[in-house]
Amino acid sequence: MSAEFLDFILEVVISYLVPILELIGVFIVAYGTIKSFIKFIRSGLNSDDTRVKIDLAETLALSLEFKMAGEILKTVVSHTIEELSILGAVIVLRALLTFLIHWELKMERQTEHAEREHAKIHEKAK
Predict the structure, then answer these.
(1) Do 53 and 32 form a contact (C-beta atoms < 8 A)?
(2) pTM for this prediction
(3) What's the CA gap between 63 and 3, in Å, rounded?
(4) Cα–Cα distance measured from residue 102 to residue 8, given in angstroms and rounded to the nearest whole number
(5) What is the mean pLDDT of the segment spanning 78-95?
(6) Which of 56, 63, 85, 116 has its CA 20 to 30 A from that of 92?
(7) Using one digit for the tens of pLDDT, what is the confidence trace for 102-113?
(8) Nearest partner of 76 among 10, 2, 28, judged by Cα
(9) What are the residue boundaries of the structural domains of the chain, listed by start?
């Protein structure tokens, strides 16, 4: 097989994979947002409920992973420096968002853990 034919096959496969990965990311956001909103309503609109925040942040992080996978695949078929620089900027921004979401998740989990420990100590004191 020639290199041109393999490039063509790769471009065709990636042209189908990228929108599928991005669509998966959109579905994850839609599902996770609805699920978190329902939990938020059930919690009595309690904005301090860390479980709702954690679930939503996990959903957003997972969605960004799928969207970043699509962007990374796009770099394989990019032919110009301009395309690569735009894709690079998008990947950096999405990676930064993912990092910030994971950092927020870590903080929320620590808060949730501290609240549980405080409740246990308070319960034992009774």
Answers:
(1) no
(2) 0.71
(3) 34
(4) 37
(5) 84
(6) 56
(7) 888 888 888 878
(8) 10
(9) 3-125
54 close to 63: Cβ distance less than 8 angstroms: no
The amino acid sitting at 61 is A
What are the tokens at 98? 């993912």
Q: 64 and 80 in contact (C-beta within 8 Å)? A: no
- Concatenating the DSSP letter of every residue in the chain gives --HHHHHHHHHHHHHHHHHHHHHHHHHHHHHHHHHHHHHHHHTTS-TT-HHHHHHHHHHHHHHHHHHHHHHHHHHHH--SHHHHHHHHHHHHHHHHHHHHHHHHHHHHHHHHHHHHHHHHHHHHH-
Q: Which residues contact 22 (CB under 8 A, 6 or more apart)?
A: 66, 67, 70
Token pair belonging to 25: 């990311």
Q: What is the pLDDT of residues 12-64, one digit of tens each?
A: 999 999 999 999 999 999 999 999 999 999 988 887 777 888 888 889 989 98
Residue given tokens 């990019």 in the structure block: 78
Locate tokens 């690079």: which residue?
A: 88
With beta carbons less than 8 A apart as the criterion, state whether 72 and 49 touch.
no
